[in-house]
Every structure is written in C-alpha cells, then in structure tokens.
Amino acid sequence: MKSKYLIFILIFMMFLITGCSNNLEVIDDTPTQEDDTPVVEDEDPNNNEEEDVVENISCSESTELVTLDNTSTLDAEFLWNNSVSCEGLELVDGIIKYKEGLTEASLTTSIFSIEQFDEFVPSWNIIIDSDIKVRIKVSVGNSDGMSEEFLMGYWTLGYKTSLSNQTSDYAKVYIDTIVAQDISLDRVSFTITFDEGAFSLQNISLTTIPTGSIWLFDETKLVEYNINVPTKQQLSIPDIGSSICSPTSLSMILAYYGENLPPSDVAEFVRDKGSQIYGNWSFNTSYAGGYENLFSRVEYINDFDTILSYLSQDIPLAFSIKTSSAASLEGAIMAYPAGHLVVLRGLKYENDIWYALVNDPAEYTDEAVLRQYVLSELLDAWNGYTYVVTNQEFE
Predict the structure, then answer these.
(1) What is the pLDDT of residue 43?
(2) Which domain holds residue 122?
(3) Are 284 and 271 within 8 A, CB to CB?
(4) Is the Cβ–Cβ distance between 353 and 305 less than 8 Å?
(5) Based on the number of CB atoms within 10 Å of its own CB, is 16 exposed (0-12), middle (13-18) or buried (19 or more)?
(6) Rounded to 5 degrees, what angle do the CA atoms 99, 101, 102 make?
(7) Does position 63 have pLDDT exceeding 90, yes or no?
(8) pLDDT at 265 over 60
(9) 338 vs 63, which has greater pLDDT?
C-alpha cells in the first residue's frame, strides 16, 4: 500500500514539473520590448511598442566590414547606415540631429577598414549653436583589436581643446594627428557625443598617410591657374601675429567664399586651448565646415594630379610647409622650422620655370602677401597635409 501511494506521489510531481516547463516556454516565445530594448529616458511616454521597435532599427548595425579610401568624407547618411549606436538622434533630410525634445545624444560608427597607415587626421563638419558641447573620439587598430578611444576634440562655439598625453600600444596622439606605435594600423571607428544646445552633423572626414606612400608628380600635366583669393597678412596683428599663419590662411580662403572675417577673429574661433596653439589642422578645417554652405577637410595628398583637379575647379588650398632656412624657399622673408601655412592659388610658367602663386600671410601688409615661389621648392617644403574648403559636397 505504501509503495502504491509513493508511486502516485511521484507521478503527480512529474506532472507539475512538466506543466511549469511548458509555461516557461510560452513566456520565452512572447516578445517583451521592455526586456530587449535599452531604456531611453527622454522617450515620449505616449510611444507604443511598435514605435520603439522602429526606433531600434533606425540606425543600421552594419555587419560587413566597409573599406574606406585613405582620404574619405563620411556624410550623415553613410554614418547613419554604418553605425552600431545612434542614441537620441535622427536623420532628417541628410543631416543628423537630436530627436525632438532631447539634448543628449551619441553616435558610434562601425569599425572601418583602411589601407595600412602610419598617420591619421580627422576633421568634421558640424553646424553648432552657442550652447552645444561636442566630443569627437577616434579608435584605431587592426584585425587583432582596437585601441581605446582618443579624444580628438572637445568642440564648442567659444571653447575648443585637444587632449595631450593620449597613448596606447596601438598609437599615440600628437595634438591633431594619431601616429602608429610600431604596429600595423588598418582599422578605425568614431564616436561623437552631443550635450545641450543644437547641432547639425553633416559629415566626418579622415585622412591618412598610407604606409610606404610615394610622391607622384608629372610636370607635363601642369597648367596655369590664378584663383583670385583675397590677401591678408598676419604679422602686424598685436600679440598673436607671429602665431596665426593657419587661421590667417583660412581667413583668406573663407573670404574667397564670401565669409570675410579678420584673421584675429578666425584665430579665436580655432584656438586649441589645450595645446595653446592656433594651428590645429582639425580645428581649422572643421571650423570652416561649420558654415552653412561650406564643406571642409584635412587631406593628405601625395599625387599632384589631385592638386591640379582642385585648382581646375577654382578651389584654393592651404599647404602646411616647413623650411630650415629662408634660402630654401626663394622669396620667403623668413625660415619656417616650426611649420607654416600658405594658400596655393595657382601656377605660372615663366622663363622655363614653373612657379606656385601663393598667398603667404607672413607679411606686414596685405599688398605684399601674394608671392611667386619656385614650385619645386614649395613642394620640397610641403608635407602633404592640405586644407580643402569648397562650396560643393565631397564625393
């Protein structure tokens, strides 16, 4: 009797266990938006679950490794379709902005592949108001892994700073340039965060020096050009005149496009408060790209055909140069051992010699700024880094 009673109890317990298991399976098969979706504190409380699902897939999580050129401009739509996270953002008419009612947001891109590089410089075109705080971060690496994110710019209308002493096993940051640490680098990703204010993110650009890069130049392709870029000098400006070749060169290019600001004003807008310099390449080009109808980027150029293409489109270029003596650039009033920026506005052929027509801001009067340098000497002094500002979107 006891054994029959025990068997009955065991059969009853097995029935209970089987029933609990079936109940659990039903719960697992039921979609639960609250469990699967990160909470966004600023969501409209009237949003239903279907709208939340749409919100999750609005930023594409690309699984395919996208390969970029060594100089690439990633427009807002490309960023949107190749990001793993875009919290608090929306894509409207090809521009990334806050979702309505929000004042905090972030975007993290997928990891992109690039030809192996030794140096990397970012730039960005973001239209901002006086209250916005933007942080631009970059991670580099290879198929083995990625570095931590380097802060390449804390960006507001009135205060901009880079961050010194950033280093990892992969790379080291020198103000505006990420330099490889004796390791192959061919991967990159971006994170941008936004706080307060308002903004319109148009694009992010990158440029690299490919490992083993060689210089390409064919004199037979040269053509005369002369773009009428307004001349502006730097040296008579009190206190900062000897330090603002970069914003003065930029102010000449901006004036060419109708944005006529004094060099001292441009200098204050691009000043890197962290490094205490006016020549942060990323900051200068990104400032120009903050105008409604302008697009700008840093570009490393190792093929003079690219220069000819820009000149043929009436696009003046700012060259970063360095010389050890004034004699190495005939016609210059001084040497530029610490670096200097000039505006290339054209080319001229005279007495069997090709000359570069250059607005060199290292002068005391605007009338003396236009120079004619031997092209070969200018190219010897140029490091390949270039400011490109245009009123047309980059392809």
Answers:
(1) 32
(2) 49-210
(3) no
(4) no
(5) exposed
(6) 65
(7) no
(8) yes
(9) 338
